[in-house]
Amino acid sequence: MAGIFAPDPVLLHARLRPASLACIDLATNRRWTYAELNSDIQRATAVLSAYAVEAGDRVATVCINSVHQIILQQALMRLGAIFVPLNWRLAQPELSKLLDDCTPTIIFTDRDPPELPLGCRHIEFSRICEEVDNADPGRRLRSRSSQETSIILYTSGTSCTPKGVILTAQSILATTVDFSVLTEADTGCVFLCDGPMFHFMGLIAQIWPPLMRGGTLLVSPRFNPEATNRRLSDPQLGITHYFCVPQMAEALSRAVNFDPSAWLTLKALFTGGAPNPPARIKWWLDQGICMVDGYGSTEMGTISGMPLSPEMIIKKAGSVGHPGPLTSIRVVDDRGQPLLPGAIGEVLVSRDVSTPIYWNNVEEDIASLTPDGWFRTGDIGWADEDGFIFLVDRRKHMFISGGENVYPAEVETILTEHPDILEAAVVGVPDETWGEAGRAYVVTSSGSRIPQTDMVMHCQSRIARFKIPKEFVFVNGLPRTGSGKVMKHLLGEDTVSRL
């Protein structure tokens, strides 16, 4: 794929199906056909050129979701410039660190800007929206190379400073193909996008597949469980695909207007980004909703996904699916040697993606790749005879208790099978007797403590004794990133409120 040009799906479908509905901004109810969306993207290139944006420049945003963010990203791609969406949940000092790393020429925000690096100017996002609406379309630009950097996405930073991941048109196309095949996206698809656009889920997985297939994209400013339930039940919207993290799915099920029997057009509820216990997937199947779990990362994009088959989901319970057509996976031991099916090791991924992987971070580039170019996910798992992947935990989360490896994700899954437990996070802590022992942070549905004897008895019938946490800490909630991952490095600090 090295010699291909960057894909331009909006231009393609503006020619193939100009009158087809491309997107709706649910905050304003404004609609765009593919012809109209293409014209607005071309107007945006003219506005950006007037701002002196050139190929290779970084342009950052700190904004909630909108169709105009998509217009901006597509326009920057046509110019050969780089889109850098930043997490609007971050504090000003945190944003300033990221700006110092990516050194944008412009930052668009819908709030007060952070401290800006030298050479960066601030423009209110509403201003470019108005200017795009009133501008004349810019001249048609030459096709760009698929090898150019198109987007920098900063990782969640669950244990350290976020890293800027480089996405080229080539890597975006590869993950779009994999996601589209695994989720059965077609020209009639309608995707609801309410995941944050500073995250892979909101910017790539929820946007690029429908654009590539000529489908329709519904953009919500942010996630709201009641609003999402209402939209999934609306036959006029006709949503076919909804992708979220498991915590968002749980919020839907707890909302007062939860009625999955009304989700008549939905093919499946797709989840990823955080562990999804098999018991919860089965619960959704019992509600008549095909919950399809998948696996991916900011660096590699979509890696695998389950088929849209309730029978296969039951048969392969606990799996995050099969790799997509453009992705290869192998599981290796500590020496990097491939393991047989069923053996647990580190999951490596191979795909034709950009090198370097990280922005301004040569050390991470070197550490993340094997000598023969496979990406080290840092995830521990195994593959079965059919190539389906089962994840055990993150390598860095594993601890050793009495000489035995303990994978917190396994223990967390068992804990959340307790009827009174909503969430759990397990970490290893120093222990005089065992070297390390488990400490479980637990969120209960009632908001009250559960006797430790009850917790231990629940675990004893399901996992080995050495895996059972020695301590249970009941908290009001778990600290999470914008993508739904638990920030385990914050557990034990004053960031969690104990019951």
Give a brief outline of the structure.
By secondary structure, the chain is α/β, with parallel strands linked by helices. Helix content is 28%, strand content 25%.
At the first level of CATH, what is the class of the largest domain?
Alpha Beta
Q: What CATH architecture of the largest domain do you see?
A: 3-Layer(aba) Sandwich
Low-confidence stretches: none
Average pLDDT across residues? 91
Cα shape: globular
In CATH terms, the superfamily of the largest domain is ANL, N-terminal domain
C-alpha-based Rg, rounded: 23 Å
Spatial strand sequence of the major β-sheet: 2-1-10-9-11-12-13-14-15
The helicity comes to 25-40%
Number of helices: 15
CATH fold-level topology of the largest domain: Rossmann fold
Structure classification: alpha/beta
First-last Cα distance = 54 Å
Main sheet?
Answer: 9 strands, mixed
Oligomeric organization of the protein chains: single chain
Query: In percent terms, what proportion of residues is strand?
Result: 15-25%
Please tell me the total number of domains. Answer: 2
Q: How many strand segments? A: 24
Family: Belongs to the ATP-dependent AMP-binding enzyme family.
GO molecular function, one term: medium-chain fatty acid-CoA ligase activity
Keywords: Ligase
Protein name: Long-chain-fatty-acid--CoA ligase FadD13
